[in-house]
Amino acid sequence: MPYRRISRRLALVLGIGVAGLAVGVGVAAVANREPAQSRPAPSVQRLDLSNFPEGEQAPAAAAKPVAANSAAEAVQRFLGANAEQDFATSFGLLDKASREQLKTVATWTDAQAERPAVTAVAVRHERRTGPDTVEVTVAVTHPPAVDPFAGLTPGRTVERWQARREAGRWRVAADPVSVDAVLPGDAGAPAAVQAWVDRLRRCDTAGAAALQATAELYGPAKLADVPCRERGAWKASATRGFDRAGDPQPYLSAFGPEVQTWARLVPVQGPKTRFTAVVAPLGDTWRVLGTDAG
Hints:
Layout: E1 16-17, E2 25-27, E3 47-48, H1 71-83, H2 87-92, H3 96-102, H4 105-111, E4 120-130, E5 133-141, E6 145-147, E7 151-153, E8 156-166, E9 169-172, E10 178-184, H5 189-201, H6 205-209, H7 226-230, E11 235-236, E12 240-241, H8 249-255, H9 259-262, E13 264-269, E14 274-282, E15 285-292
């Protein structure tokens, strides 16, 4: 079963965890491009694949026999092969049940189309779940993005994969047990909106656009013109949940119900006018996605 797009791509049918940290970065459920924060040393060497040319793909030939001496090594090699689009190798690391369901490398390759690209993988820890099964937790880095076709692709995720020992070798299930998106803490959203509205107040539309998740704003976009006309002092307030949006429909229509898990609201108050900025997490930062009159 392929990923669906928290993004309608990253929100697995299996479910996705959403919970930010107050400062820095938290595990949860973004819209421009960046990563972050130091982590405990991984138990398996970090695999940096960021320089692999985009769009290149290994031919979907016959499956390659691949040996892995541990559950962690199997998951690391499996995700590394997928990152390099070497799907013959990753197919060779699938467990028996997954191979029987997918049947061919070509079918497996097609199933990867909606999975987010991977640039780095680091194993965190392992947990034995049965006599021949181990659950491996990994930190995975992706190119962050948000758009109405793919939804949200977080810059980093924490994923749990099941590895199974079969005929003396470790194999990996085709889909993760769970995926948790790593989002910036909500506390950073007001500063991002303050920088944006300060540029609008100075009528610096190009500067404000550089702080947006997308070129065009969602919602009643004309509200973004008010700070330039009204001038004076504008102040961004504390972050609110998306459930308090006055009119969530433009965002639900564009991004689906998943937007409620990752978008946030930041009210801004000017000399005469008050409105709300809707923000999206892009990597480890917040970017303005649109406006709301509520």
